[in-house]
Amino acid sequence: MLTIGAFARASRLSPKALRLYDELGLVRPAVVDSVSGYRYYRPEQLERARLVAWLRRLGMPLARIKVICELDDHQAAQEVAGYWRRVEAETRARGKLAAFLIDYLPGREVDMSPLTVRYAVLSDRGQVRSSNQDAAYAGSHLFAVADGFGCESDARPASVVAIDALKRADATVPAGDLLNVLEDAANGASRAIHEMADCRKEVGTTLTALLWSGSHLPLVHVGDSRAYLLRDGRLFQISHDHTHVQAMIEEGRLTPEEATSHPQHALLLRAITGHPAPEFDLDLHRAEAGDRYLLCSDGLHTTVTPQDLREVMATATDPAVAVRELVDHANRKGGPDNIACVVADLHAA
Ligand code: MG
């Protein structure tokens, strides 16, 4: 038998923690001296105590540790994996909030760069599809594209339903509220799809939208439509594709060149569907005078080469010319998919 001090040293748990775990029924001593109250442990109890210590090091709550201690090894491993996936998801969400604050706080008091916006929007059926399930919207503050799927050709596309719900955010919003307003609007779009998809499980849409106010420009995004920024003559993709092939590229199993011709290049990992609310990417960008933004569905960015995309974005004299040229480019390449795009220029007021 080991005294509580010896058992604590061997298990890397403090005597105080061991007394607490005794009360909670996590690690009970084998014997408690009825006179002195001293606790004694058997050596074979060390394995369980060490497991408790490791799980504590992961930050796992005691109640969950207690459940895991009662499982067989296989189930326990699955439970730890599930717990860790959730920790990672929560950490990612907190990371986004931290990134937002790092960007937002220094400019909070000095958002005095008045910008004005010029924009154009165009959506086209393309050369192959019988109907257009893409939708695009541009208003005084909101720019959005959506690529719907699963609706009959005579029904209202999911993309239109989502953007109609999102439009409520198209208003002047104080900078501090921008992200919340855009996230609420995206959740509203998700609810609208959930309602329409009730009996048609495969209905859904991508959604990529920017809400502009002052020099702040939050982006909400889910799916494989994209947002680009042209700044100082360079074109940057500022959204992240939620596709099977993008995940394979990140895992090093596919090159970006191979991805374009991959049979599953359009398979989405995330989208707004009839299922519970999707995980949106939410980022804040700071706009500068001279910026040109492009939102587009995959019917554009998978059809037109990156060189042509940059060329049009860099040379078109205004947004209306840009969207027309982009759609024409896609149609000249066969227009295999619907096309939706928004171009917005920010100018010094
Ligand atoms: Mg498409």
Q: Based on DSSP secondary structure assignment, what is the total number of beta strands?
A: 15
What can be said about the biggest beta sheet?
Answer: 7 strands, antiparallel
What is the H-and-E element order? EHHEEHHHEEEHHEEEEEHHEEEHHHE
Please give the share of residues in helix: 25-40%
Provide the low-confidence segments as ranges. none
Mean pLDDT value: 90
Q: Look at the helices and sheets and give the structural class.
A: alpha+beta
Structural write-up:
Strands 5, 6, 7, 8, 9, 12 and 13 form a seven-stranded antiparallel β-sheet that branches. The chain has 349 residues and is of the alpha+beta class. The protein is built from twelve helices and 15 strands. Strand 5 and strand 6 form a beta hairpin. Magnesium ion binds at residues 147, 297-299, 337-338.
Short précis:
The chain has 349 residues and is an alpha+beta fold.
